[in-house]
Amino acid sequence: MKRFRAFYDHGVVIEYGEKRFIIDPLKRPSKPFNAVLITHGHRDHVNPNAVRNVAPLIMSRETARVLNVRDGVNPRYIEVTPGRELDVDDAIIEVHNAGHIIGSLSYVLDFGDLRVGVTGDFNVEPSVLLRGADALDVDVLIMETTYGDPNYVFPSRDFIYNELVGIVEEGVKDGIVLLMGQPLGRGQELTVLLRNYPIYVEPRIKVINNAVGIKYGRVLSGSPEPGSIIIMGMYGDPISIVKSLRSRYGAVRAVVLSGVYAKASRAAGLRAFGVEALPLSSHSDFPRLLDFALNSNAKLIYTVYGNAARFAKYLRRAGVRGMVLPTAAQSTLDPFLKA
Ligand SMILES: [Zn+2]
After folding, report:
1. Are 155 and 280 in contact (CB under 8 A)?
2. Most buried pick, 131, 199, 270, 301, via CB within 10 A?
3. Do residues 197 and 124 share a domain?
4. How far is the CA of 40 from the centre of ligand 1 (A)?
């Protein structure tokens, strides 16, 4: 086995022998590399300025379309879909479905005698729009841990959908329903889930929806009629947004959707002001993260994003070698090779 190193340097860097792969760089790579891989279109994973004139650049068509309509960039790239395998300088890149948002991917770099998985953001639970994330079978796993804390346990997606549709049914009887969540993620999921209702979507969501072929919903101009649903991004304080809408339109039922509301205290704070909160997330919750990690058979698991240190501790408790993905300065060659 050759020299292996993984670390975070404005993106996830994987080195094996003379090879270097960079995943989700937020800065233009300064050293030579074999390929840059993008997992999905959220801005904390892809920076339009970092991927200009970078080659080879690998991503899904949906991610490229989001970059195009949202950020106005059109980089040359190699389009991949889940199930595809790509040979880059004698390393095989396996492409997997990540189930996080439309076009999201996980990757496995197979160096022959070492398989390294990078999840990107992922969600193992299927949604109305996406399949659940593929399981990865690897030697080393680099996984996101946004909700890697036992406080985050989500009900099943079907349960949350039922709750949400119940609120919507009630709300459209005598007023307007306002749903707020991430424009890239919740925006598409809610549009598809509620396609049979009269829905309005804010322009930023409409642009993304159009780019990925979701045609439901109109852009709001003027006042929404009673009985309609407005889907918008979450910008600023939801309570003040809802207050101003209520003063304009009268009865407004409002629901905020994010995994953070799995914490009862966060949800209760909003409910006190008449705003509902449901833990509908693009990420996996703590038990599902742990399950995913243990099923990977990885001998070494690096955690990154969110509750990385906490989740690594739970991995070690479960008997797995888990640690936070080091920075370039902290990284050593051999935590894996010594194992
Ligand atoms: Zn994301």
Report:
1. no
2. 301
3. no
4. 7
Scan for tokens 């101003």, then name that residue: 244
Whether 27 is in a domain gets the answer yes
| Residues 146-197 pLDDT 10s | 999 999 999 999 999 999 999 999 999 989 999 999 999 999 999 999 999 9
Residue 329 domain flag: no
pLDDT tens for residues 220-229? 888 888 999 9
Angle between helices 61-71 and 203-211 (to 10 degrees): 140
Of 231, 233, 191, residue with least CA distance to 215: 191
Flag whether the pTM goes above 0.90. Answer: yes
Task: Give distance in angstroms: CA of 173 to centre of ligand 1.
Answer: 34
Q: How far is the CA of 100 from the centre of ligand 1 (A)?
A: 7
Distance CA 242, CA 221 (A): 18
Q: How many CB atoms lie within 10 A of CB 233?
A: 16
Residue 215 CA to ligand 1 centre (angstroms): 23
3-class SS at 257?
Answer: strand
- What pLDDT is recorded for position 338? 46
How does pLDDT run across 57-94, given as a tens digit for each residue?
999 999 999 999 999 999 999 999 999 999 999 999 99
Residue 311 is which amino acid? F
Alpha-carbon distance of 4 to 14, in angstroms, equals: 8
Question: In terms of residue numbers, what domain contains 38?
Answer: 4-151+283-324
